[in-house]
Prior knowledge:
Shape: elongated
Largest sheet: none
Low-confidence stretches: none
Helix content: 55-70%
Number of helices: 6
Number of strands: 0
Strand content: under 5%
Mean pLDDT: 90
Radius of gyration: 16 Å
Structural class: mainly alpha
Amino acid sequence: MPAEESGNMILISYAYYKFSGNAAWLTSLYAKLNQWAQYLIKFSLIPGLQLSTDDFAGELVNQTNLAIKGIVGIQAMSGVATVVGATADAANFSATAASYYKQWEYFAIDPSGKHTMLGYEWRSSYGLLYNTYPDKLLNLGIIPQSLYDMQSNWYPTISQVFGIPLDNRHSYTKSD
């Protein structure tokens, strides 16, 4: 789960800073965080066949939710770079995240314009887009409100008795 975990490490590190104010801790980890961010830049927009946190559902190529985690992680890395005073890096990470997000919309949103797909070009698919949450939690602002609104309008149309299925491949969901 290389894209998953690279995004997780950046996001949790930036979250720790946001809630603790411990900039020295981020500074001490900057080289490693930058390494994970470089991985995301190289591999998150078009994720290869790999597991995500939903490893029990199996591997999948071009996972929409995994790609958005990488993009949100890159934007969080812009925040990390700002905190440690690496302003050129911060600008680069932010510009990359913004560019990737625009491309992601093209790949990820169903042609109907009503929801995102589970995987790029899988027109009949859908999945929970829970990796957008850190964007709101950390006030990153990379995802426009229109995406949240689109998904919020779509989810009631696929909801089951137990809630919204994790994705169209199975009828289960998860609560973590």
